[in-house]
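Lab meeting prep.
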Amino acid sequence: MICCLRDRFLRQVHRLSVCLLLLVFCVGWWVPSGVLAQDAPPSLDDHQAVAAFVDEFMAEQMAEHKVPGATIAIVHQGEVVLQKGYGYANVADETPVSETTPFRLASVTKLFTTVAVMQVAEQGQLDLHTDVNQYLKTFQLPATFDEPITLHHLLTHTSGLTDRSVGSGTTNPDQVLSLAEYVATYLPERAYPPGQIRMYSNYGMGLAGYIVEQVAKMPYEEYVSRSILQPLEMEQSGFTFTADTATGYSGRFWTRPVTPIILNDKPSGELYASAADMSRFMLAHLQAGTVDGVRLLEPETLQPMHAQQFTHHPALEGSAYGFIEQIDGERRVIWHNGALAGYRSMLYLLPDEKFGVFVANNSDYDLNKEVADTVLEHFFPTSQDTAPATIEMSDLSRFAGQYTVTTYERATSLRFIALTQQTGVSANADNTLTIFGDVYRPVAALLFREVDGTNQVAFAEDEAGHITHMFRGFSSLERTPWWRGIWVNLGFIGGVFLLWGLFDHLIRKSPDFTKRSTEKWLMRGWNYVFTVAALFAGLGTIIDTELYYGVQRPLMTLGLNLLWLWLVVSLAFIIVAIVKLFRMPRSRLHWYLAGLGSSTLAFCGWLYSWNLLGAHW
């Protein structure tokens, strides 16, 4: 009896098991596979799987954005996972990119400059917290503020020095300046006391490289070659464009080869390197300063180079020495990117994971960030951090207004570019702010967090409680006075143009129009010619990208200088018109001519306020 019951029970269990298996099979057939199980990312130990993933993504991106050529290097736990080239180094010759093809690093060069400074400091010849004027023999930084500028400030971009783009580079090899000539000739203004505001400064890094040059008693390029490139066996790296270097491309679909820009400010962006060479540089950083038995830096010297050295707010990302910090949840990345005409580059390091990725391409499209971010997220996905609670604030209107990126040039004719680098902050009725087009909620007294994201923005106030600055990521922005706001300035320009049109119409309708035709045509014609010249010079400073990379344009310089002639002639017309008004008080023509000249004079005043009346480089 017991056996029969047992057999019957086993048969029922068997039938039930078959039914369950069929059910699971059917559900598995119907439900998308992604719902049942997430595909795990390939292990970095599986180099072929990593290469397949990168190959597919790189092919998609390069095809979509018409990028001529690119290269990538990935390292992990002391091994080279991938180093490879894609596309063409030279499109005309169909020269393929390989892992040994040198690309322009642009600002990634700053990491090599920082290593050079840290090496000389390690030898006891430099102190990171000593006034840099003690190392400068032929010139001195002005004592604008009581606090001295140190190498610590230069390496964290907190020196308060502004930039002067034009003059930092040239396309003519015969016009290249030595580093000593450049740093002495193009000394910028000090906008802030050191250690207060992070302002990205190419000049500051150039000055750091010059100090290495002075202390080491050899040219900067020679020091980097001897102390970094040669020991690490970076055989394809150097400071000269060679026949093997990838050609940079610009223009529509990146089809126009660019003329290489030779930087006078070499420590900020002149180095060329291949993916294979950058693998060794990354490995040295990720292995306590050593690769293949060669020591680049002692661990105690390397550690502060990777550690946060400055931040505007404890909740925000900051600066290490040379590196920029990025924190996504529990994942901390130190990185630097580079951009010059026809070239883009990006380097990411995860020191805790001993992981690094370097990407470069020979176009003006920022392919590198997309690739590096995708690789990073694929192998080291971010974990969502816990969002802090919203706090109530009684008055958010004090945060509202216009803010300008602090890195704008104050003393040059590129000053008015600040008008294009402004962002508005508006206070909303629901206890939020709209910043950069996104909504932020308050989570601390001067700290706001994106409602639908993880970005955070901090503000700074003065002793009176007035908001002075806004900080987000690596960017710092200063509160913009109303008269510097973009809408006020556009309104002023529009008003001047309306006055010109009005006075021109009144002059043509004046009863004295035919009697004074020569005088009228001189005034009107002169005004039109120089209006076009002013617009040409102004627009040229916006759209000519080589200006931002240091190349001076003689024609643009001439155009800006000729605007002084416009001012002088306009003053002469005003004086003549006023004199004739006393002789012919009933003549409206001279009133109109005086009005036209006065509005032109006002416009010249506006040009002067933005350093556009005459060339200032």
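Slide two material, second protein:
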Amino acid sequence: MIFKGHFNPLLSPLYFNKLTISLENRIKKEYFYKENKVVKIIDYFNNIYSEYEYLNNDNYSVKFYLFDESVNDKKIDSIKKFTLNENKIIREDLIAIENNKEVNIYKGEFNYSGDYLSFERFNYKDGEVYRIEHKWNEKKTINRIEHLDEPTKVEYTFDDNKFLIECLQFKHKGSVKKTLYEYKSDKLFKLIEFPDLEYKRTIFGKIKIIEEAQFMNETEYCYYENGLLQKEIIRDYETKQIVDIIHYDYE
């Protein structure tokens, strides 16, 4: 999910045709663009090659290939097909390739309330159903996402200008992972990630952290003059020592 002010590598970066993301002189990902759309992604960390195909009605599909040492040895693994209506995804089909045959894995359906996603439903071939409910407050500043078939909840908080400022992820009973976001010139400037911490709710329903956070990181985002993302500087939150630098290069 891409939020307002966050860099979106799936969109063509100005007039460039290629984006390379690297960490310590090792390439993490390469994005290739044509006619202002991403057409290919090579993920060297996870050994995944993705190929995009667009149809005239804005529907599109993504073919996923896996490889070991070389991209030239890639083998097709699966296909995702996306159906859109008014620029919103309303259906997603996952198809696995087994013995050179297409096998349907699931069908996902997406419902909206106006411009806002309200419900997701995934029907698997074995009969399993996976449902996700999205609830918004009246001002559209809080989005609560509940996975109805597993104990996972996510709560996004936005400011009045629709910028994401906080994310709470509830994966285990009594623990929460918090992420804070800061912006400068309408672009993501800093991200602070807290580890899983114990919490309790106050009588007003607010989240109160009751465990001291350790081993936290903060990420600072730097941009070129043309607005494109230049690098991410990841630091230890307490010592401010640099842990990693992720570089973005355009061709």
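Talking points for slide two:
The chain has a mean pLDDT of 91.
The chain is about 0% helix and 65% strand.
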